[in-house]
Amino acid sequence: MRTQDLITEKLTKAFAPESLRVVDESHLHTGHAGHRPSGETHYRVYIVSDSFRGKSRLDRHRMINATLSRELAGGVHALAIHAAAPGEGGG
Amino acid sequence: MAIEQFIDNEVKGNDVVLFMKGTPQFPQCGFSGQVVQILDYLGVPYKGLNVLESDDLREGIKAYSQWPTIPQLYVKGEFVGGCDIIREMFQAGELQQVMKDKGLPVRDPATA
Asked: What pLDDT digit, counting tens, does each position of B83-94 carry?
């Protein structure tokens, strides 16, 4: 399974998001530390979920990092996170 | 000295500490560079620690903060966040407030 799909699946399972977009930005980091020719190293996640309501930014990131701990310990070098609860805008 | 003790000393012995890739003068990662730009804009004195100089430090800070990525910003011994959080807080004016609340001088272009 592609890492992008794996991330999408894990986040969907963990947070039942109202909206979720996982963008592979690996190509933007060609030649940069952590980049591999095979790609699948840099991701950006836009997620809106009720799970984040009342949670601080740190808590939201920690929840997502924990869900993706195996990926982050492995090949995923960078994960940019935009996490919001429904109605907060952004995300 | 164990790396955890070294990190603890740095975090508690300096008002603002940025664990980053590269140095404030020469960031070697776009995410670290963004936080440097924000701190420089605010005019807050800070200490930059280059995790690329030491694998011990690079892995040690991840374990210390229970946070998997670099950069990481500490203010007065407290972990504030990584690049996304710092940028969001800065854009919302919250980072400036955190600094002020902790008694750190922030350049405020609106009133300067």
From this structure: 999 999 999 999
The structure's pTM equals 0.88
Check: CB of residue B51 under 8 Å from CB of residue B60.
Answer: no
B33 touches chain A (CB under 8 A): no
Best mutation target, B31, B69, B95, to test chain A (most A CBs within 10 A): B69
Reported as half-sphere exposure (CB side, CA atoms, 13 A), residue B61 has a value of 27
Helix (H, G, I), strand (E, B) or coil at A84: strand
Backbone angles phi, psi at B24, to 5 degrees: -55, -35
- What's the gap in Å between the CA of B106 and the closest CA on chain A? 22
Domains in chain A (CATH in brackets) are 3-84 (3.30.300.90)
Query: Is the minimum CB–CB distance between A61 and chain B shorter than 8 Å?
Result: yes
Q: Which residues of B touch A57 (CB under 8 A)?
A: 81, 85, 88-89
The per-residue pLDDT for range B31-54, each reduced to its tens digit, is 999 999 999 999 999 999 999 999
Q: Provide the CA B95 distance to its chain's centre, in angstroms.
A: 11
Q: Which residue of B has its CA nearest to A56?
A: B85
Closest chain A residue by Cα to residue B63: A73
